[in-house]
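Why run this: before we spend reagent on co-expression, it is cheaper to look at a predicted model of the complex and decide which construct boundaries make sense. The entries below are exactly what would go into the expression plan.
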Amino acid sequence: MSATTQLPAAPTPPSASSPADAARPPQRLRRGALRSERPGVRVAAWATVVICGGFGLLPVYWLLATSLTPRDQVFSYPPKFFPSAPTLDAFAALASNDQLFGYLRNSVIVSVITAVLSVLVSAYMGYSFSKFRYRGRRSLMYLVLASQMFPQALLLVTLYSVFSAYNLLNTYTALVLSFTTFTLPLCVWMLKGFFDTIPDELIEAARVDGASRLRIIHSIVLPLAAPGLIAAGLFAFVRGWNDFVFALTLAGPEKQTLPPGLVNTFIGEASTAWPELMAASLVVSLPVAIAFIALQKYLVGGLTAGAVKG
Amino acid sequence: MSLTLPQSAMSRRRVLQLLGIGAGTAALAACAPSAPGASTGSAASAAATGGTKTDFAFSSWSFTEEAAAPALEAIVKAYQEKAGVTIKDVSFPYNEYINQLTLQVKGGQFTGAAHVDVAWLGSLAAMGKLQDLTALTEGRGYTDAALSAAQFDGTQYGLPWTIGAIGLVANSDLLKKADLDPDAFPATVDEFEKALKSLKGLGGGLIPYAASTKAAQLKDILIWMETFGSPLVDGDTVTIGDDASVEAVTWYKSLYDQKLIAADVDRFDARSLFAQGRAAIYDDAPVGRGAVTEESPDKDLGSKLVPLSRPVLKDGDTPRALVWGGAIAVVDGEGAETAADFAQFATSDLDTVLADYEVRGLPPVTTEAQQSDVVAADTFGTQFNDRITATSTSNPFWKFTAYSQIETVVAEQVQAVLVGKTDAKTAMQKAGEAAQKLVA
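The model came back. Tokens follow.
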């Protein structure tokens, strides 16, 4: 067999949990599927859709409505579903607040690095747990998972002491390391499940073709695991983006991220600037929402791959 | 179908391994560096006699508050120019402030001046890192009441910055509509209840008294217990569960049942209800004035605010109020000497204090400032001082480091009474027993 010989086609598992399947968007309902049902069923189905949609979207609408409401009308009674005198003052206030852009920059830096680091480390760890057999493998796997069993407050105190001892407080490093502490276990297990679905025969075939171990990982396994890597990265990104307590405690004023920054800016001892807070929340949610929309098919596929069999 | 993540059920040995790991990590956490020894107060003494000025940090939750930040920035700027030093400002959100400050002080990350709520002084002092600032109080004109509010266990751990009280605040327009004279408000609890019924008679869904009924803020019940004659604490013995506390909670429950107070109200809700004209009376400190006037569609609400003495159980009793306020404490370490000097400057330099008053409107703590024209011209402020702050006392639980947990266990039992889960006597006995355990 020459070096250019194609790899043998890997046997496809009977389940829908292969990487290719995971990357495929969920099967859509047949056009007009609901239309073919009896009218009563159709009405009930659409009513369910509307209720569930409303349940999910109403808070988002309220966020938007409050951000457009003047501060002295936020708690007007009876509550108004549509702001009677909508204003963009809250958004204008955001735009003129340089400090918020600093928080935004910090959030982006920390979340992106957390996502990259988590994916990088968990990919190798997950691959190792999935494809190699060695003494202590299972213990290590559960050890990784064990860190999820501790209350965050306990870990926070410990991490604070450690970072303080190593002079890492008030640095991006402290935030990235602490966020990665939380994201790594789930990412590792998620990717291990994903790698489990990649047939060993595929790796064997590559090895027979003379591919080195690193080549196999980088040229064959990781591209196939792209949906899982994206899902893990998105999870880690969101974890870093949303964290409040660790960012507040470890970051210091210069490296503070958006969640503590917004609270610090808009929630005071006696009052809360609700329109500004809602406007800021809306704006900072957008990157995550856009990322979810753009990558949702990978996310769903990546999260569920390897979750079920049989 | 079966889950594949755990490849096999965890064996007992593995569970034990995990528990061992957990215990090990917990032990590591417990071995975290502890705070060094208690402060000797030398920096404060040095500051009192003058010395070389050095840079230091100043923490306050108000640095990022839209309304208060300009006042603090002006004070910092004035002192930096006066002393030729740089002050590094540190800020945490108010609700997280004490936890963050405690962590930073314990870990040795923070030294310098710290804006603190007077309620927190006991907890912070227990770390042994606060300076005794007694030497800095002499000749500065602090009122005795203000100095007392910033003491813990007889030691001046903070210089008072703005000291007031939490008392009843009413909308005078609504009182007048119910034929109640704001300047001759009912003196006794019975008369107060009748007045609330008159206010309820105005209709329109008006809440006569937006008293705290959410567990998070039900510590407000303590001042009513004192009004009914309970000392709350006698030495180190919690007296909650005595007849007076039971009577107070029974009365509170009757107000609740008559819908004279509303369900699910905390301080923020009360301010909103009051700002919207949906509540006639509520409990607040002077700091709440800015919040309710800013949130209100009634641009003239500020002139309608009137502070009321808390009704007493019987004629001749002294109206009760709970001390509220802020102080500046000094954490021992780098820059502490200059920080102590700054604390004295911020809290007692007349020009600085009056400039601060014009922005924040919070009660000053020196006699000279209190008698100044700008403070005397503030009708609400002077009435609040005369009717509420004058007879205010500290929360007796503040002397215990677990005061916050004590307030929580009492609040939970009071809430159980309000929602009808238990009776006042049983609940207060339980609350007293639980609080006693936290004192011990």
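The mean pLDDT of chain B is 89. The two ends of chain B are 55 Å apart (CA to CA). Bring this page to Monday's planning discussion.
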